[in-house]
């Protein structure tokens, strides 16, 4: 098989999804499987649908369009706010979209009218992480606008935490979201279907045993794919953390000095300069060079037992430690972080290998 490649164990991904769907269902919470880190790979999405996810979430309309042709039988949710230039495509292919701008809502309504459909809207609320979202003081006016626009269906409200500034979901901000949805329902005499608490970062709060309030929906990506929550990278009990691994091939293995020498400046991927070094008078150490670089994956997100990552350039990864046992032609497997998985999936130079299938 070619390298570098992602080895994707579909039965492990199904296990992760089934476990989380069932675990959260006991708390009255539905799961949207967020497949954006895999570019909406149909093989993975179909595995999640078989495991019982309520819907599929994607951030790019191109992936939504591709998945809409797969006839999955579940709603497709555009989790990134729609671009004005793409509202026609959003309405045509996504059942629901996350929104925070009045001008976009009006454009979606016009597009839905032209297409003779009704488009679902999840209004996003800003609760501290400072990415997308409507301030609480402005939420009532946005709800009023959404309800007044023909061809739009207000599905509920939601928020996103943890992604921009690492703000953790907790009793305070999740409690505020519950209070907001209840206030809106009283004010407008409606019942909203979704109170979407966020993403995989919500899982530590949920396992803390506190009152979940009105939270009944989560958008999970990292938990389903990598078996971890993103705030502390902690493994989630009962899930596979190695359902997806990255495999790279060794192209050089030599004993070299452990420090660079000569006058040093910036590199393409690191700031500098640093103090010049003379050729070190120190023990030599084995280093292996792998055909994997910044163009293929985020080196900071790679890990393997006994392997130390010394650095990376566009096309090369330098490792030590267990590298002594590596020779040209050998393969080395790495666990990946979310950022490393995303970049590897995006790289045209990283192939994909599916192992097993849904049980």
Report on this model:
Pfam families: Ala_racemase_N. Keywords: Isomerase, Pyridoxal phosphate. Its cofactor is pyridoxal 5'-phosphate. This is Alanine racemase. With 359 residues, the chain is an alpha/beta fold. Helices cover 29% and strands 25% of the residues. The protein has 2 domains: 10-226, TIM Barrel, CATH 3.20.20; 244-355, Elongation Factor Tu (Ef-tu), domain 3 (Beta Barrel), CATH 2.40.30. The chain has 10 helices and 16 strands. The strands form 2 sheets. Strands 1, 10, 11, 12, 13, 14, 15 and 16 form an 8-stranded mixed β-sheet that branches. Strands 2-3-4-5-6-7-8-9 form an 8-stranded parallel β-barrel, surrounded by 7 helices. The longest helix has 18 residues, at 171-188. The chain is elongated.
Number of helices: 10
Number of domains: 2
Terminal Cα span:
25 Å
Shape: elongated
Average predicted confidence as pLDDT? 95
What is the CATH class designation of the largest domain? Alpha Beta
Q: Provide the gyration radius in Å.
A: 23 Å
CATH topology term of the largest domain: TIM Barrel
Query: What would CATH call the architecture of the largest domain?
Result: Alpha-Beta Barrel
Number of strands: 16
SSE pattern, N- to C-terminal: EHEHEHEHEHEHEHEHEHEEEEEEHE
Task: List the topology elements.
Layout: E1 5-9, H1 10-25, E2 30-34, H2 42-51, E3 55-58, H3 61-68, E4 76-78, H4 87-93, E5 96-99, H5 102-115, E6 119-125, H6 136-148, E7 152-159, H7 171-188, E8 194-198, H8 203-207, E9 217-220, H9 222-226, E10 244-256, E11 285-290, E12 302-303, E13 307-312, E14 317-321, E15 331-336, H10 338-346, E16 351-355
Parallel strand pairs: 1-16, 2-3, 2-9, 3-4, 4-5, 5-6, 6-7, 7-8, 8-9
Antiparallel strand pairs: 1-10, 10-11, 10-15, 11-14, 12-15, 13-14
